[in-house]
Design brief:
By secondary structure, the protein is an all-alpha fold. Helices cover 39% and strands 0% of the residues. It has a domain of 28 residues.
């Protein structure tokens, strides 16, 4: 039996930045703003994936 890559893997959440990752200079966007956007994209991708895979809890 050979291992075949899953053609539709479950999305993985983005890595959370360390609290020290923010420089505190008011960057626009801040690394935490980018993380929030990535989390939103992850939630949307996960919702769509679950619709395609209703058998997975």
């Amino acid at each position: 039996m050979t291992d075949v890559a899953d053609p539709d893997p479950m999305p993985r959440p983005p890595p959370e930045p360390d609290l020290d990752a923010c420089c505190g200079n008011g960057c626009d966007p801040c690394i935490f703003d980018l993380y929030d956007l990535a989390k939103d994209e992850y939630r949307q991708a996960l919702r769509a994936w679950r619709e395609r895979h209703p058998e997975v809890p």
